[in-house]
Design goal:
By secondary structure, the protein is an alpha+beta fold. It has helices spanning 21-28, 75-93, 160-181, 183-192; strands at residues 2-7, 10-18, 36-44, 62-69, 99-102, 106-109, 112-121, 126-133, 200-204, 209-217, 223-227, 230-234, 238-241. It has an eight-stranded mixed beta sheet with strand order 1-2-3-4-8-7-6-5, with helices on both faces. Strand 2, helix 1 (21-28) and strand 3 (36-44) form a beta-alpha-beta unit. The chain binds biotin (BTN). Biotin binds at residues 20-22, 47-50, 53, 55, 63-65, 116-118, 130-132.
Length: 245
């Protein structure tokens, strides 16, 4: 069962249960030209994560996919706008909370991953932004790529729908900044909250592991890593912070 509603200018459809909100959003984008929409569900049975991983979808958490018309060449800006909006949402709900960003698109609360973002191509000009936010619980298995946390365990009490409303407001504000000041402002803001800038990090790509100093990101969203061999521009990978490196 689903309910069609509006949150300001966003068409919002909330389901009781579905496989993946991204699949439903991709489908919805076929007949939605000119509109922003967001799909949510209480229960998600087949959540997808980045690089073919699955997303453990525990009930009470937020599973959402936004459909926004966006030029695919501006993808890097969109990735950073979404994670910045999530960070701003948490900071707005809980002033003073320890929230940081981890390249390319994770949000860390007290040093652990609290949300994940999966961007996929929708129909025509639509980009589908799938977001999972651990609101009330988080997976605890030891084979997680990065340790996870949730808002409730950090003492932040909010339900998934109220979080969604606050998030959309923050996203609209960041979108206005992008329209006014462009990608370099978004990159500058993102970097001001990024964990590990100027420090030694490890970046794991499907092929190899690289060590070096995280010196920044460029306007195409690539991580700039100063290694002993020179400056590397990394397009995709997983970042790990190792104080011993
Ligand atoms: C990651 O690997 O960090 C990205 C996880 C993205 C999970 C969200 S949950 C809502 C949306 N629907 C999906 O199937 N995946 C995304």
């Amino acid at each position: 069962m689903s309910n069609i509603n509006y949150i300001r200018d966003w068409i919002w459809i909330d389901y009781d249960e579905l496989g993946s909100t991204n699949d439903v959003a991709i489908d919805f984008s076929k007949n939605s030209s000119g509109k922003n929409f967001v799909i949510t569900t209480k229960s998600q049975t087949n959540g997808r994560g980045r690089t073919g991983r699955s997303w453990i979808s525990l009930e009470g958490n937020l599973f959402m996919s936004m459909g926004v018309e966006f030029n695919i060449r501006e993808l890097a800006a969109l990735v950073f706008m979404v994670s910045l909006s999530l960070l701003n949402t948490i900071k707005h709900i809980c002033v003073g909370s320890d929230v940081l960003l981890k390249w390319p698109n994770d949000v860390l609360l007290n040093g652990k991953k609290v949300s994940g973002i999966l961007l996929e191509k929708g129909s025509d000009n639509y980009m589908i932004v799938g977001i999972g936010v651990n609101i009330v619980s988080s997976p605890e298995n030891s084979d997680l790529l990065y340790p996870a946390t949730n808002l409730a365990s950090a003492g932040i009490k909010i339900d998934r729908i109220e979080f969604l409303k606050q998030y959309l407001m923050q996203f609209e504000q960041i979108k206005d900044i992008y329209a006014r000041d462009g990608v370099s402002k978004i990159v500058e803001l993102w970097l001001s909250f990024a964990k590990g800038v100027g420090k030694n990090i490890i970046v794991r790509t499907p092929k190899e592991s690289k060590q070096g100093v995280f010196v920044g990101i460029d306007n195409d969203g690539r991580l700039l890593l100063q290694t002993l061999q020179g400056l590397e521009k990394i397009l995709a990978g997983d970042v790990f912070f190792d104080e011993k490196v």
